[in-house]
């Protein structure tokens, strides 16, 4: 069970980096308030909030929330009882995490524990302007657009994400629910205007990055450092790059529009030739 922080006298001589590391250690050990943390390291709450966010890319509250969620997810993956996992992770009541379960875990804790058991996911393979795409959707929206040449490998990636979900393959165009979503994805991958409802599953910081990417206009790029600065985390370029690498919704969440500071392409989950091709197409439009 997580412990509450007992405020201690703030040390007078801790350099800035050590203070932030001390704050992170306190967050890893308990559930201190912002005022408790500020008192512990001798900073004002507002100054601590700014400095911590700039250093780690998350506010102290967001860091704590993600740590608790990570503890919960690990316990559920290990097969722990749901109620015990919730309380051990520091959730005083199961109601809050259940109310927001779909947004934070992509499904309720019980289903996450079971590898997606009970989650209904329809998927299909689609020939697109960018080659073969596996498109998968929950009732909430598209949860995966995976590109590749090998259909078996694409299916394996989906099953790896949701090993015990009810995965239903449907033929493109034969499912009233999936048909319009496949059409929207095909339009998006062809560079046409399209509205694609998506179901993004990730950490708070990853979702911030993905939201920022979707605000980059077609034909433009931003550097990893520029995106980090926009999110209030000027030292978070590597974290931004990691969030891009974990994006499972190709093109619609346009991680291809993020490049290195010197203008070179950087990395891309689906290969640099495709990244260059899509950027060239968008600039020419």
TrEMBL record:
Catalysis: reaction(s): a 4-O-methyl-thymidine in DNA + L-cysteinyl-[protein] = a thymidine in DNA + S-methyl-L-cysteinyl-[protein]; a 6-O-methyl-2'-deoxyguanosine in DNA + L-cysteinyl-[protein] = S-methyl-L-cysteinyl-[protein] + a 2'-deoxyguanosine in DNA
Protein's GO biological process: DNA repair; methylation
A GO term for molecular function: sequence-specific DNA binding
One of the Pfam families matching this protein, by short name: DNA_binding_1
Keyword Cell inner membrane: no
Domain HTH araC/xylS-type: 17-115
EC number(s) reported in the record: 2.1.1.63
Matches recorded under Gene3D superfamilies: Homeodomain-like (1.10.10.60), Methylated DNA-protein cysteine methyltransferase domain (3.30.160.70), Winged helix-like DNA-binding domain superfamily/Winged helix DNA-binding domain (1.10.10.10)
InterPro entries xref list: Homeodomain-like_sf (IPR009057), HTH_AraC (IPR018060), HTH_AraC-typ_CS (IPR018062), MethylDNA_cys_MeTrfase_AS (IPR001497), MethylDNA_cys_MeTrfase_DNA-bd (IPR014048), MethylDNA_cys_MeTrfase_DNAb (IPR036217), MethylG_MeTrfase_N (IPR008332), MGMT_N_sf (IPR036631)
Keywords: DNA damage, DNA repair, DNA-binding, Methyltransferase, Transcription, Transcription regulation, Transferase
Keyword match Transferase: yes
Family membership noted in the UniProt record: Belongs to the MGMT family.
Name assigned to this protein: methylated-DNA--[protein]-cysteine S-methyltransferase
Organism, scientific name: Agrilutibacter terrestris
């Amino acid at each position: 069970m997580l412990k509450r922080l007992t405020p201690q006298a703030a040390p007078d001589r801790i350099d800035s980096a050590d203070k932030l590391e001390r704050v992170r250690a306190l967050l890893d050990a308990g559930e201190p308030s912002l005022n408790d943390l500020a008192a512990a390291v001798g900073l004002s709450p507002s100054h601590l909030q700014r400095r911590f966010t700039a250093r780690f890319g998350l506010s102290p509250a967001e860091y704590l929330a993600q740590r608790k969620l990570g503890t919960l997810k690990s316990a559920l993956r290990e097969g722990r009882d749901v109620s015990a996992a919730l309380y051990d992770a520091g959730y005083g009541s199961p109601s809050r995490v259940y109310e927001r379960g779909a947004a934070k875990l992509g499904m309720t804790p019980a289903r996450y524990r079971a590898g997606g058991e009970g989650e209904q996911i329809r998927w299909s393979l689609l020939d697109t302007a960018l080659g073969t795409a596996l498109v998968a959707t929950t009732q909430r929206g598209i949860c995966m657009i995976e590109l590749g040449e090998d259909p078996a490998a694409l299916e394996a990636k989906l099953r790896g994400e949701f090993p015990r979900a009810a995965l239903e393959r449907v033929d493109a165009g034969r499912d009233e629910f999936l048909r319009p979503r496949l059409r929207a994805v095909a339009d998006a991958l062809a560079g046409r205007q399209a509205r694609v409802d998506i179901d993004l599953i990730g950490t708070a910081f990853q979702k911030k990055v993905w939201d920022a990417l979707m605000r980059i206009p077609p034909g433009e790029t931003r550097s990893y450092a520029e995106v980090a600065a926009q999110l209030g985390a000027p030292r978070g370029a590597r974290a931004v790059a990691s969030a891009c690498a974990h994006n499972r919704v190709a093109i619609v969440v346009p991680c291809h529009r993020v490049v290195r500071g010197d203008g070179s392409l950087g990395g891309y989950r689906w290969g640099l030739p495709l990244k260059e091709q899509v950027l060239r197409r968008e600039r020419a439009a």
